[in-house]
């Protein structure tokens, strides 16, 4: 029996004695048991996890349907899907009242917020928000995400570098090491960092790399990464290699090259060899791949 089928039957308490024994011996059982125990301690929040999960699943399958799950099964089911398919963790804390979603290296995921705003989370990223959503529409982002915000009161994205505020729009935020970038695809976005305050209309981008601000226009209607591609324009090679590590869940050894060199180009998220050639050929570099490790020279 497939692992996903075992988990489904375990959630419904339908496993036979032999199936239960087999499932308890699997790697997934320990993690899901701990999530199950934690779920029993969590009081049902205002956030309807079941509805949010169903909306996400329906969008992917292009089939709209509604289903009523009990609270405990909803939390564990979302976690089960995360463990098997996405490698992300869905954490609900009854002490702080915060919900956190994290993607692993090499993974992306979609989620729907309580106000029906939609988020696509890039690899190696995390998003956190308060369950008391009616009080304030605000999330904290570490990494990169595309937001499509429903109209309403002010929606705030907080990062370690700056704050983005909108009323209803579609925009991308990237908050990585030494790289902060906001691109507006629809509507109007207000970006605040330090004592500075900027407003971006659709088709405009603000970027802060190593403390240096840049403004650019874009004809794109979505960030390239949602189509499994990373595009760079005049950025340090170190940032390009960090993104490559993030998208392929690999480690790159590059001690023999100058990672401060400026790079303009792109790479695909779908084939490592092709991605490495896209980076190495323009810079006259060579590479060697060994399992999850890459050496650039």
Q: Explain this structure to me?
A:
The chain has 3 domains: 86 residues, no CATH class; 134 residues, Jelly Rolls, CATH 2.60.120; 69 residues, Phage tail protein beta-alpha-beta fold (3-Layer(bab) Sandwich). Helix 1 runs antiparallel to helix 5. It is an alpha+beta fold. It contains 7 helices and 19 strands. The strands form 3 sheets. Strands 1, 2, 3, 4, 5, 6, 7, 8, 9, 10, 11, 12, 13 and 14 form a 14-stranded mixed sheet that branches. A 3-stranded mixed sheet has the order 16-19-18, with helices on one face. Strands 15-17 form a two-stranded antiparallel sheet. It comes from Aureitalea marina. This is FecR protein domain-containing protein. GO terms for molecular function: sigma factor antagonist activity.
Which shape, going by the Cα principal axes? Answer: flat
Structural class: alpha+beta
Helix content: 25-40%
Number of DSSP strands?
Answer: 19
Measured distance between first and last alpha carbons? 46 Å
CATH architecture annotation name of the largest domain:
Sandwich
Order of H and E elements: HHHHHEEEEEEEEEEEEEEEHEEHEE
According to CATH, what is the class of the largest domain?
A: Mainly Beta
Provide mean pLDDT, rounded.
78
């Amino acid at each position: 029996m497939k692992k996903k089928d075992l988990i489904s039957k375990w959630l419904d308490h339908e496993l036979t004695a032999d199936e239960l024994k087999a499932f308890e011996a699997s790697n997934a059982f320990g993690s899901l048991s701990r999530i199950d125990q934690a779920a029993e301690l969590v009081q049902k929040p205002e956030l309807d996890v079941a509805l949010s999960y169903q909306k996400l699943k329906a969008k992917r399958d292009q089939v709209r349907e509604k289903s009523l799950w009990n609270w405990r099964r909803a939390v564990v089911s979302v976690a089960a899907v995360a463990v098997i398919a996405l490698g992300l963790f869905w954490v609900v804390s009854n002490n702080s009242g915060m919900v956190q979603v994290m993607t692993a290296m090499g993974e992306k995921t979609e989620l729907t917020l309580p106000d029906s705003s939609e988020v696509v989370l890039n690899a190696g990223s995390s998003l956190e928000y308060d369950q008391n959503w009616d009080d304030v529409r605000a999330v904290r982002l570490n990494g990169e995400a595309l937001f499509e915000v429903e109209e309403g009161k002010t929606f705030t994205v907080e990062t370690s570098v700056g704050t983005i505020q909108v009323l209803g729009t579609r925009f991308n935020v990237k908050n990585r090491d030494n790289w902060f970038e906001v691109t507006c695809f629809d509507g109007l976005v207000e970006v605040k960092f330090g004592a500075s305050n900027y407003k971006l209309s659709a088709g405009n981008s603000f970027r802060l790399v190593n403390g240096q601000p840049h403004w650019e226009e874009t004809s794109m209607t979505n960030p390239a990464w949602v189509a499994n591609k990373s595009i760079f324009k005049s950025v340090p090679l170190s940032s390009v290699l960090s993104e490559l590590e993030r998208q392929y869940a690999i480690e790159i050894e590059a001690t023999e090259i100058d990672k401060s060199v400026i790079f303009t180009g792109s790479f695909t998220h779908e084939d490592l060899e092709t991605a490495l050639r896209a980076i190495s050929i323009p810079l006259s570099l060579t590479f060697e791949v060994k399992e999850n490790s890459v050496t650039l020279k």
